[in-house]
């Protein structure tokens, strides 16, 4: 199934707005990933990139298999951002993936602190780095990190580190903050080098 999204990131919605939108999708029992994607997809691809990245730095990363799903979702969204597809496609099995709404609700409260911090530090700077043609650089980096994350599921903390890097990159793209995106790219290089040395 495909979800219509804007191909370009816009600063119209901050990180807190993304978290608020996720909260509106919670059902009584379990929340499906497809419902969350449909709810925030109208704002563009970048919020859909930030969602799994935030999840990776939350306690949800300890759920077996969850890290791999987040990595695949990040890679899928990033690839379609680079291709500038007008609609986001996700495989049916991913859209049907669900978690307890009560657990998601607890994690959302945890999300609000980093989201508030990101909204405070982001502003439009060096926008050329987050608009075509140079926007393919942070998008391509997110794609690469998304592919790496499932391979590191059994290595403690690595997925959370890479998730934090993707949050920085996504926040930069969401807010039109090229300086933050550049910072994320430098941190990514350092993080990948450090992880490579460990494994």
From TrEMBL:
<feature type="transmembrane region" description="Helical">
    <location>
        <begin position="154"/>
        <end position="172"/>
    </location>
</feature>
<dbReference type="Pfam" id="PF06055">
    <property type="entry name" value="ExoD"/>
</dbReference>
<keyword id="KW-1133">Transmembrane helix</keyword>
<feature type="transmembrane region" description="Helical">
    <location>
        <begin position="53"/>
        <end position="77"/>
    </location>
</feature>
<keyword id="KW-0812">Transmembrane</keyword>
<protein>
    <submittedName>
        <fullName>Uncharacterized conserved protein</fullName>
    </submittedName>
</protein>
<keyword id="KW-0472">Membrane</keyword>
<feature type="transmembrane region" description="Helical">
    <location>
        <begin position="179"/>
        <end position="198"/>
    </location>
</feature>
<dbReference type="InterPro" id="IPR010331">
    <property type="entry name" value="ExoD"/>
</dbReference>
<feature type="transmembrane region" description="Helical">
    <location>
        <begin position="126"/>
        <end position="148"/>
    </location>
</feature>
